[in-house]
Amino acid sequence: MTDPATYVAQSAITTVNIGELHFETGGYLPKVELAYETWGRLNAEKSNAILIQHALTGDTHVASSQLSPEAGWWEYLVGPGKTIDTDKWFVIAVNMVGGCYGSTGPSSLDGDKNPYGSRFPFVTIRDSVNAEAKLADQLGIERFHTVIGGSMGGGRALEWAAMYPDRVAGVGVIACGGQATAEQIAFAQAQVEAIRLDPHFKAGDYYGGPTPIQGLGIARRIAHINYRSEPELNVRFGRQFQGDENPLNSPVATRTGRYQVESYLDYKAKDLAGRFDANSYIALTEALMSHDVGRGRGGQAAAIAKITATPFIVAVNSDRLYFPEQSYQLAADFGPHTPVHMIDSPIGHDGFLTDLHQVADDMITTLGL
Amino acid sequence: MTDPATYVAQSAITTVNIGELHFETGGYLPKVELAYETWGRLNAEKSNAILIQHALTGDTHVASSQLSPEAGWWEYLVGPGKTIDTDKWFVIAVNMVGGCYGSTGPSSLDGDKNPYGSRFPFVTIRDSVNAEAKLADQLGIERFHTVIGGSMGGGRALEWAAMYPDRVAGVGVIACGGQATAEQIAFAQAQVEAIRLDPHFKAGDYYGGPTPIQGLGIARRIAHINYRSEPELNVRFGRQFQGDENPLNSPVATRTGRYQVESYLDYKAKDLAGRFDANSYIALTEALMSHDVGRGRGGQAAAIAKITATPFIVAVNSDRLYFPEQSYQLAADFGPHTPVHMIDSPIGHDGFLTDLHQVADDMITTLGL
User: Fold this and answer.
1) How many Å apart are CA A265 and CA A222, to the nearest integer?
2) Does residue B191 belong to the interface with chain A, where contact is any CB pair within 8 Å?
3) What confidence tens digit (pLDDT) does each residue in A34-73 have?
4) Which of B11, B108, B151, B345 is catalytic?
């Protein structure tokens, strides 16, 4: 058995109590738990830790491991001998506070064993970093070699570098900019309103009864369309009908026949509704909309100027949720010679999940992996 | 007083009974009325008629007139001495069947004085053209000099030229392609589902009770974001807070403070909910998704080959609802020398409303106005 001080966990989810948490916009929880998975071993100096941050509906399962063999969402990136080599690095992934994959969130029980529901605090990206810093303290990790993530995970990584410059040596911001844009806020609003419109939502206090899966499904549809590019949807689905269904054979407006793209989004909606809590979806969506590295810091350029971590910035050339322009702006704020590493993929934003291997060598070089 | 045969109406809305209508996907109505506005005078030969087709939530009020002096949605285009000169042309605009601006739609009463609601037929663009052809028959218009429209109005114009090649001499398709794309269908599905989720929708039979304005408002938000470009939203609104509101001062997720872009979309949602019937929104959205000029005609190229009307095709360079690529494809199907006239505007799809004057001279030349 390894010394507990240098050996944290051999994968599978661990949950720790980080104590109370004061949230940025006034909320307070007396006790917060964070769930995390790890890969590899923390060295004696605790200098080989890499924090990988998940996206909006992501979880801690970045990659497979002995105790959790199913493939993770960056399976090709993280593992023995891979880009982030777990023979060398101690990798940790934390479920964000407010989420529903093990960390304290709206579906968690308060001290009286009642789910928080509508009483759960408003969460910002900065709140999540504060919580994760407490976890890092507990693990004895003074400084991460790298904090990296894609989409909302990129925002979480960037805030780590901005809030704790002394604790982050390298920061990877993949398919994310320095702030949520007007368009992202606009689409997020429609999503949140759709969930709230669901009669089962009951202002957020639906636990114990039916859940607002229809509203959550609509939110997912809106989001997922923007995770993909227009050409990708058109090439894959076009106007094809789904199987034997015919969307043009109903005498009244409420048709049952679907187009293929509708069936595809029905699947995406159902899949998310089966695995994600609607309140967590709202909480993390709001957190993502709060993302603005320059807020209260004199703007983005001033905020970035105080970051000491080495930046590794990646965009997807077909991304229309986080347009590459945002990554270029972020890179420019890091300095005139900061490159944007471009993933060439027709599929859109989700290229950060499917095609990050394209810039794996750059990642190794830039971040010193 | 002018001879009724040559003088149809001096603006303001006229409603006529066009009799029964068999709908393409099996629906049937024993009596359909169409509402229309006109400008100018039909000449003795009835050869100077121009049909202008409105978009999804548009109406017949294309331009002001003596009896209806408020500005219309193509005010700068239509009137005495303007691009479509009503001293020369007899202009008519018809509210599409299924709509809620005077023509028979889901909110209309059946023979027993009950609103159709959920029983209203599924409407296609072709159904609307069929209905309008009956109106043209009544008015004695054998052939339109021009049928022109933007967005869904462009689809309606294109179908006119495809269904009645002998009755359309010139066709203007503005900011619309030959078919609804996978992406348009996907966003439409989310919109329709949002309306259906509204507890007030009651499967479409909500008349006499509260109306599903929340669901319709969500639909409008989704649609309107796509009517504008991402840069336009970002330049206008960015992350600005609305007035004294602060989206980041709520201790819980249900915040009351809004971002400016949210306030803007709240306004758009409320405005539409106050002026449009939700069932009509679904009916016309479904009609627009049915748009496919090549359906049942051996594909788009074969369908276009049978059109004899002179095409006038316009796109907006920043349109991300009807990408210019679709207009180029349409033009190519009309023949190798068919140009796409490009509106240069940063605002996106809505440029077809705000900036069509940029191609007014091309319109006059191409269509012989």
Assistant:
1) 9
2) no
3) 999 999 999 999 999 999 999 999 999 999 998 899 999 9
4) B151
